[in-house]
Write a structure and sequence with these properties.
By secondary structure, chain A is mainly α. Helices cover 70% and strands 2% of the residues of chain A. Among the domains of chain A are: 167 residues, no CATH class; 54 residues, Orthogonal Bundle (Arc Repressor Mutant, subunit A). In chain B, helix 2 packs antiparallel against helix 3 and helix 6 runs parallel beside helix 8. Chain B starts with a helix and ends with a helix. The chains are: A mainly alpha, B mainly alpha. Chains A and B meet through helix 12, helix 21, helix 23, strand 2 and helix 24 of A and helix 7, helix 8, helix 9, helix 10 and helix 13 of B.
């Protein structure tokens, strides 16, 4: 008895799911007719929960595909093949209107996307890869602005598949070609997606020169979604850090952390961004605050010990930490950055000494920092002075280092420029918010009731946009 | 001439250290390589074992080109050859089957690193390093070729100039003879680094001490020392008087608050606020 109940329960669930997906088709159709991409954002907002439900229920997609696509639709074959289902006769023939909806490119691509996600969740990578071949072909046959959002997402999954298959090179030409198309069509969403995907691809294969070329030669669209901007900044930070341009790297990584959505789904991203940010801060000669390590869940322990070693200026401890956590850093792809910190350990040591003493002999510094000889100390101190780590001078004949008196910062331009920077930030924030406001059009002559309906719609859409496109961070 | 013959001749010339001659021979060889589709490894030409073997020969030819241009002090062409070799080193199919055959890869990479270092191209150096560290082919820490430039850079950044001096001065420390080509440029780069540090650190310093710090021989007369300084390092603000060098530091007063810029900023804010209201 129980089995029967279960099956019937399952059946009804399947039906509701199919209904749910069909409802999103109406939204997609609306987007296509009104040229309003916000409807698509709304569909994507529901994609997360839908994805989890589809994951548990393998019957929905075959039923859906059999139902909505007519018999002679060429893509039907391979879609069904991909999810290992057989073609079945539709029980009722579709009426004309429904047929028109289901053959909209938006709907077609959305179904493809659903199949992609389903296969990815079930780890059917080789099948997904074959499907992706068809999808790329299909993508090229369309040129509609209302597809931009879906297209970007589809490229994301195509690239992700290749990454999981450990085949980073073969996808590049396709990505580059579609980047060109997307740029020519002013398709900001897809452009942004593909730029981040390419950067990720290059960085995964440690092709920093290529990544750098890409960044220099392309312009990242400003209007792209926050999630994408966050990613872009994160990759930029990595590139700058590898190039030893720490201050730009720091700006980028902070922007990345700020722009990243503050939800559960983005935890992984924020964690790795935070790790990078800790390292960059250390490389710049600053010590990150303790709360950075404790704020989020995640394993920051190795980074904490590295920071400790740098803070104490203890070379021996630093060596031990590096050795102990080598594997860990390599897994995070941060090992080269961490091993660059060695010189900072010495520099912080010198800085601490210069702050505590106004005058100290080179010999004492040598002993304090466990250096080999006084001569070496002189070189290292003078290098530190040149790099601007400390403000001091050396008296060679008498062999001591003398710290310079601290300048009064308020007599300089510094506070002014700092103040200026903050004011500019506030002003640009204001200007951006003004620009992103939406006003109802003046020649609105709709009757009152319809207006109300529109308003509700509008509210819904705004909410969708606010919550944004967070789903990608799940991977 | 066929490719085989040309290659054989190239090997012979290179072994007998006729580097100029081998460089001349390389141009026709490269044209032959292009004709046989062997100049660049592609997924399409690394399928069979024969193709991979052919590509290995192509790699060896390019390596000879790189070494020969280095030994004839032609750095530009060394860089070009390295760029051509890069895809060979990145292609796994070629690499996996030649572990024992050819160990010149790390040698050439390390020479390239050294070249970048001697030119002061530190950020390029690190980009290259990132690729090497993360490639599974090389054991970076243990490879005697690769560890040399890496150590050098580390010491240079730390300011550990004594160690560098010792490394460079003793020829037996060098893993191979090609390195000697960089010694002079590296020593010059080292002295340049030191002199830049000196002028920031001291107000004045006796000439003899300065010679010591820059690793110039003490016997060298002061006037010769002075001309070397003026010619090789940018020491416009060094003044030599009575056996002592004074460093002129014209501290810029640009940091002081300037009235005009403040006024300009304030006006700008006012304009913005007006538009808000």
């Amino acid at each position: 008895m129980k089995d029967v109940a279960d099956t019937s329960d399952n059946l009804s669930q399947t039906e509701t799911l199919v209904k749910e997906i069909e409802q999103s088709f109406t939204l997609l159709a609306k987007a296509a007719h009104n040229f309003d991409n916000r409807y698509i954002s709304k569909v994507f907002r529901d994609l997360g929960p839908l994805r989890r439900k589809l994951n548990k229920n393998s019957e929905v997609l075959p039923i859906l595909i059999n139902k909505i696509f007519p018999q002679d639709y060429t893509n039907k074959q391979y879609l069904l093949e991909a999810i290992n289902a057989t073609e079945s006769q539709p029980s009722e023939s579709l009426d004309n209107e429904a047929l028109e909806t289901s053959l909209l490119p938006e709907v077609q691509l959305y179904v493809h996307l659903l199949v992609q996600v389903y296969l990815l969740d079930h780890n059917e990578l080789s099948r997904l890869d074959t499907l992706n071949g068809h999808i790329v072909y299909l993508l090229k046959s369309f040129n509609r602005r209302s597809l931009d959002f879906i297209q970007g997402k589809i490229w994301f999954y195509i690239s992700r598949t290749k990454e999981l298959l450990n085949d980073l090179y073969s996808i590049r030409p396709e990505l580059l070609a579609s980047l060109r198309t997307a740029t020519l069509r002013h398709d900001t969403e897809t452009t942004a997606f593909i730029i981040t995907l390419l950067l990720r691809n290059y960085l995964l294969s440690h092709d920093v020169t290529q990544a750098l070329n890409l960044v220099e030669k392309t312009e990242f669209p400003e209007q792209a979604g926050n999630g994408l901007v966050a990613r872009y900044y994160y990759y930029l930070a990595r590139i700058h850090a590898i190039q030893l341009d720490y201050s730009s790297a720091n700006e980028c990584v902070i922007a990345a952390i700020r722009k990243a959505p503050q939800t559960q789904l983005a935890t992984g991203f924020i964690q790795s961004a935070t790790k990078l940010s800790i390292l960059i801060e250390l490389l710049m000669g600053d010590i990150p605050e303790l709360k950075v390590f404790k704020k989020q869940p995640g394993n920051f322990e190795p980074y904490f010990y590295v920071t400790k070693a740098v803070k104490l200026g203890d070379l021996k401890l630093f060596g031990e930490v590096l050795k102990k956590y080598e594997e860990f850093f390599k897994r995070d792809d941060n090992f080269t950055l961490v091993s660059r910190l060695r010189q900072n350990v010495i520099k912080t040591g010198i800085r601490i000494i210069s702050l505590s003493y106004s005058k100290i002999s080179l010999k004492d510094i040598c002993i304090k920092l466990h250096l080999d000889s006084e001569e070496l100390t002189e070189y290292i101190v003078s290098k530190a002075i040149r790099d601007g780590v400390i403000e001091a001078s050396i008296n060679h004949q008498k062999g001591f280092m003398q710290s310079k008196e601290l300048l009064d910062v308020y007599s300089t331009k510094l506070p002014q420029s700092e103040f200026d920077q903050r004011i500019k930030f506030c002003l640009s924030l204001h200007n951006d918010s003004v620009k992103s406001m939406r006003y109802p059009s003046d020649n609105d002559t709709k009757p009152e009731t319809e207006k109300n309906l529109d308003k509700e719609d509008e509210m819904d859409l705004l909410k969708a946009i606010e919550e944004g496109d967070l789903d990608d961070f799940m991977d | 001439m066929s490719l085989q013959k040309l290659t054989a001749e190239l090997y012979k010339l290179f072994d007998s250290q006729e580097y100029e001659q081998s460089l001349k021979l390389l141009a026709p060889i490269k044209i032959e390589l292009i004709k046989h589709n062997l100049l660049i490894p592609l997924p399409s030409n690394t399928l069979t074992k024969d193709q991979v073997n052919d590509l290995k020969i192509a790699q060896r030819i390019l390596e000879i080109g790189a070494l020969a241009s280095l030994l004839t002090n032609n750095y530009q062409s060394f860089e070009n050859y390295f760029a051509q070799l890069r895809p060979f080193y990145a292609t796994a199919q070629i690499y996996s089957k030649q572990e024992k055959l050819n160990t010149d890869a790390t040698k050439i990479i390390s020479l390239y690193l050294l070249y970048l270092l001697s030119q002061g191209l530190i950020s390029k150096f690190h980009i290259e390093l990132e690729t090497i560290y993360n490639s599974s082919h090389y054991d970076t820490e243990k490879d005697k070729y690769l560890s040399f430039p890496i150590n050098l850079e580390r010491n240079l950044m730390e300011g550990n100039y004594i160690k560098i001096w010792k490394l460079l001065k003793e020829e037996k420390n060098l893993p191979c003879k090609e390195y000697t080509h960089f010694i002079d440029t590296l020593i010059n780069a080292l002295r340049f680094e030191i002199s830049k540090s000196l002028e920031k650190t001291y107000d004045s310093i006796p000439i003899s001490n300065c010679k010591n710090l820059l690793y110039f021989p003490q016997e060298q007369s002061d006037s010769v020392f002075e001309t070397i300084l003026k010619e090789q390092f940018e020491v416009d603000n060094w003044k030599i008087e009575g056996g002592v060098i004074y460093f002129n530091r014209n501290e810029s007063n640009g940091d002081q608050a300037e009235a005009s810029s403040t006024v300009f900023n304030a006006l700008n804010y006012a304009e913005q606020i007006e538009s808000i209201i």
